[in-house]
User: Fold this.
Amino acid sequence: MRESRRTHTDPPFGALRSCFRRGRLRAQIWHSGGVESRVDLDQVAGLISRYAIEWEKAGCVAGPVTWKDVRGPGLYPFREDRRKAAEADSVGVAVRKGEQEGRLVVFRGGWADLEYWSGRPCDEPVLEVPGWDDRMNLADIERPLRRFAGLFG
Assistant:
């Protein structure tokens, strides 16, 4: 299934992607290459995988967990194979349920990018950066995971 192959490297899905093209969203992309690691991204990937099982039980399509290596050029390449991201900068997942779509990316510096759109043209996307002002540890990562899951409710 095509949706199941999406990664956190893909531009946002469908209509959310067109919002980016039309300039309706002003997303900032942060690179955490020089930032101290505050969370173990392998453990975060385990949390994401556990949530993905629940998301799929609730009718969502969760893409594979993907990795960004700190030495990778710019925004790309993102990898599904953890071994190809020797020094992981971030780990993320894309999720879809009907017209709803979203992405959650957790950075080793202790913050996350959370993006969600209901799929309804009248709704604005949700764009949050949990942990940006107050860096998260592994236990704190549960909050944005629960928030992200709740958006698809």
About this structure: Residues 2-151 form one domain. The helical segments are 14-21, 41-57, 142-151. The longest strand covers residues 88-97.
